[in-house]
Structure formats: C-alpha cells, structure tokens
Amino acid sequence: MVNTALYIPPRNYLSFYPCFVALGQLTLMNWALEFHDSRLFRLHQLGRKIIIQFEPAYLHCSDGEPGISPGSGWHQNAELVFRSASIDGSPDSEGSVSEGTLDFQGVKLNLVPAPCRVCGGVAASFTLSNGNSLKIKAESVELRLLGEPVYIDKFHGE
C-alpha cells in the first residue's frame, strides 16, 4: 500500500507585509509557484536525490486562488527537492521555464502551493525556452522558498 499525502506546512505570513489587506485586519494569503516565468538556475543530482534551484521563481500571492484571483506577483529563490528520483533529460540544463508541470496522482499542476511537500509518487516535466526538456519521477518532492520575496507586479486575475 502506497502512502500518499499532500502536506502544506504553515508559513510565517507576517513577514510578508505587502501581501496583507490593510483594512484594519490581517488576511492570510495563499502563495503558489508558477513554473512559467521562473528561471531554472541549477540542477544537482546527489545519488537518488535531485535538487532544482529556481533563481528567481515567480510566485503568485492572493487571498483567493493564486494565479486565478486578483493578487500580486513576486520573485523569490526556491528549490524543488525530489527524493528517490530519476531524471530523463540534460542535468546541466538552465534557463527560463516556458512550460512546467508537477503531476501528483494524475493531477497536473503548473501552479504549486508554496511551500509544500508531496509524498506517494510524483512526476515533473519542464521545457525551457532554449528547447531543453527534463522529466523527473520521484517518490516525493518538497518545494522550499529561500530568502525574502521581492514584489514584481499586481495581478488582476483571470
């Protein structure tokens, strides 16, 4: 029996002041990494662990559904850590991501809750603007945000 779970750990939202609605109360915001508009900076392979670094990653912030509801766009460094993983494609790829998805139990995500951890079998695929592509299969993946976010723009919603 495979144990599957999606775990989204709590985040210290108070340190991200500009993402709160300033109407006399604080509102917890939802964050998601969008692979498109992120830059794959480096890929490390350490045995069966694969780490993809995004410098920067593009993040949506909203009090609704990130990438759909109105909110804001941010840049922040991030990394995806795949465990018990295998890769198909060039491990020395780098560049802007033109298309990327994370597949968990048949659900394909191009926006990933940030931060999060997915266990129980995942697949990821990335196509870079230079034409290189990567495919990764793993038992788990964790999305980690690094450093502080930098405000980029307002997102009016779809």
Q: How much helical structure, as a percent, in the residues?
A: under 10%
Average predicted local confidence, pLDDT: 83
**Could you state the order of secondary-structure elements as H and E?**
EEEEEEEEEEE
Helical segment tally?
A: 0
Explained architecture:
- With 158 residues, the chain is mostly beta strands.
- The protein has one domain (30-155).
- The protein is 0% helix and 63% strand.
- It has no helices and eleven strands.
- The protein has strands at 5-7, 30-34, 39-46, 49-62, 71-83, 86-89, 95-104, 107-109, 111-113, 116-128, 133-155.
- The chain has a six-stranded antiparallel barrel with strand order 3-4-5-11-10-7.
- A hairpin with a 2-residue loop joins strand 7 (95-104) and strand 8 (107-109).
- The protein is globular, with a radius of gyration of 16 Å.
- The protein starts with a strand and ends with a strand.
- The model is unreliable at 1-27 (pLDDT under 50).
Summary tags:
single chain; 158 residues; mainly beta; disordered N terminus
Task: Summarize the topology.
Blueprint: E1 5-7, E2 30-34, E3 39-46, E4 49-62, E5 71-83, E6 86-89, E7 95-104, E8 107-109, E9 111-113, E10 116-128, E11 133-155
Antiparallel strand pairs: 1-10, 2-4, 2-9, 3-4, 3-7, 4-5, 5-11, 6-11, 7-8, 7-10, 10-11
